[in-house]
């Protein structure tokens, strides 16, 4: 019997959970400042939502999705990313007929991919992402990139860079893909297996190969084959980024892993991550809403793995103290009453349920991280008092408080 957690998953205990809460607060706060409201979608969708619209030839769909049938023989998939589900929700709610643009975000969205686990990338991981529907203007692209830059700065990440590219749209991309195939056709026998498959099914991903670097270096560049509208969009975006002080470089080999991207694609990288230096990616997907049965609605977005953010964040708030008050008493009934009064007053309180000695209880109080101990034994009971002893303030004197006052106004009596 194997009861260990599955490979590529993790358990999060209270000390680490405090950092998660701090990161979530930063993400929620930034999304609000940029006008994004939270969306929560199901953990699984009908398989077609991902298999069809992410692209059947993509690595995620071919190798990494968790697919299953339910008891009704419906084909379902655990979501590998957030965008396709967000578009499905956008359409199913009829938001395309409402006021646009519409800005939606998700925080701690669980995603599942069967891939080799590595630092910051797990088979079950969590994402923060933003999706903007209804604007084709490059200001939306610039705003998304600015939001990410602000996020990384707020988390204390200084060593990051923005890579940018344009991969065209349905008007100009077919001619570029043909030029790409013409270049790669005589090289096919010497290419890796993945590239030989991509040549027919997903040629844009040839630029993403990490093995055939020499071939990639000589390949035609997307920027040299853009139509006038795509070229103007890209130039305007770069001007906006310059205006708001976001340095960036053009990476002519930058593409995204899903078929739905058009025009702008971007990536943030950091030297703090070593060889696997990508923090996050995003871009524009102007045709995705229409391909899923909706009207033409331009859209753009990004997603970032929160585990990866935790590896580079240096300014998250310190973990919350485990407890405010520990109640040590030789009478469990009294200890429970005091704890409940403290909790109702908004304080974190705990007690010993094992009838241990007061000395053992005080050792437990020290281990708990509580700021204050409330002590009540026979001598205090005879005088109708309890002792309030500071545990984290060296030199601070303990004091006695009336037991009835402690139960009636616990926050004031313990000094919290």
Could you characterize what this model shows?
- With 416 residues, the protein is of the alpha+beta class.
- It has 2 domains: 14-172 and 226-312, 2-Layer Sandwich (BirA Bifunctional Protein, domain 2), CATH 3.30.930.10; 325-414, Rossmann fold (3-Layer(aba) Sandwich), CATH 3.40.50.
- 37% of the residues lie in helices and 21% in strands.
- It has 16 helices and 16 strands.
- It has helices spanning 14-33, 47-51, 59-64, 83-92, 138-154, 173-184, 193-201, 213-217, 228-243, 288-291, 306-312, 332-344, 358-368, 378-383, 403-408, 410-414; strands spanning 37-38, 44-46, 66-69, 75-78, 102-112, 124-133, 160-166, 249-250, 262-270, 278-284, 299-305, 325-329, 349-351, 372-376, 385-390, 399-402.
- It has an 8-stranded mixed β-sheet with strand order 1-5-6-11-10-9-7-8.
- The radius of gyration is 28 Å and the shape is elongated.
- The model has no long low-confidence stretch (mean pLDDT 92).
What's the arrangement of secondary structure elements?
Elements: H1 14-33, E1 37-38, E2 44-46, H2 47-51, H3 59-64, E3 66-69, E4 75-78, H4 83-92, E5 102-112, E6 124-133, H5 138-154, E7 160-166, H6 173-184, H7 193-201, H8 213-217, H9 228-243, E8 249-250, E9 262-270, E10 278-284, H10 288-291, E11 299-305, H11 306-312, E12 325-329, H12 332-344, E13 349-351, H13 358-368, E14 372-376, H14 378-383, E15 385-390, E16 399-402, H15 403-408, H16 410-414
């Amino acid at each position: 019997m194997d009861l260990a957690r599955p490979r590529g998953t993790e358990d999060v205990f209270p000390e680490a959970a405090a950092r998660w809460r701090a990161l979530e607060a930063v993400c929620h706060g930034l999304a609000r400042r940029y006008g994004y409201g939270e969306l929560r979608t199901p953990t699984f969708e009908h398989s077609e939502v991902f298999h069809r619209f992410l692209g059947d030839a993509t690595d995620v769909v071919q190798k990494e999705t968790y697919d299953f049938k339910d008891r009704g023989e419906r084909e379902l998939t655990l979501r590998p990313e957030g965008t396709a589900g967000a578009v499905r929700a956008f359409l199913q709610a009829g938001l395309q007929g409402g006021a646009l643009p519409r800005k939606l975000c998700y925080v701690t969205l669980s995603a599942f991919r069967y891939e080799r686990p590595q630092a910051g990338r797990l088979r079950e991981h969590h994402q923060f992402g933003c999706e903007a529907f209804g604007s084709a203007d490059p200001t939306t692209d610039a705003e998304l990139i600015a939001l990410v830059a602000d996020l990384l700065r707020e988390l204390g990440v200084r060593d990051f860079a923005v890579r940018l590219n344009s991969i065209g749209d349905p008007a100009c991309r077919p001619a570029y893909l043909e030029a790409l195939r013409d270049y790669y056709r005589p090289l096919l026998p010497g290419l890796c297996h993945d590239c030989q498959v991509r040549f027919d099914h997903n040629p844009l991903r040839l630029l993403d190969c990490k093995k055939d670097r020499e071939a990639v270096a000589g390949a035609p560049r997307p920027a040299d084959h853009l139509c006038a509208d795509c070229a103007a969009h890209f130039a305007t975006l770069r001007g906006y980024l310059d205006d708001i002080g976001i340095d960036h470089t053009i990476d002519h080999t930058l593409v995204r892993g899903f078929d739905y991207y058009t025009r702008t694609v971007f990536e943030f990288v950091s030297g703090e991550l070593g060889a696997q230096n990508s923090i996050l990616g995003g871009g524009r997907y102007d045709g995705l809403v229409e391909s899923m049965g909706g009207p033409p609605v331009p859209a753009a977005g990004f997603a970032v793995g929160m585990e990866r953010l935790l590896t580079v964040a240096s300014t998250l708030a310190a973990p919350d103290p485990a407890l405010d008050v520990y109640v040590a008493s030789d009478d469990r009934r009294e200890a429970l009453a005091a704890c409940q009064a403290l909790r109702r007053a908004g304080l974190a309180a705990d007690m010993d349920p094992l009838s241990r000695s007061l000395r053992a209880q005080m050792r437990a109080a020290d281990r708990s991280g509580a700021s204050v101990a409330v002590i009540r034994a026979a001598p205090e009971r005879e005088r109708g008092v309890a002792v309030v002893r500071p545990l984290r303030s060296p030199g601070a004197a303990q004091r006695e408080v009336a037991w009835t006052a402690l139960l009636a106004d616990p926050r004031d009596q313990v000094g919290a």
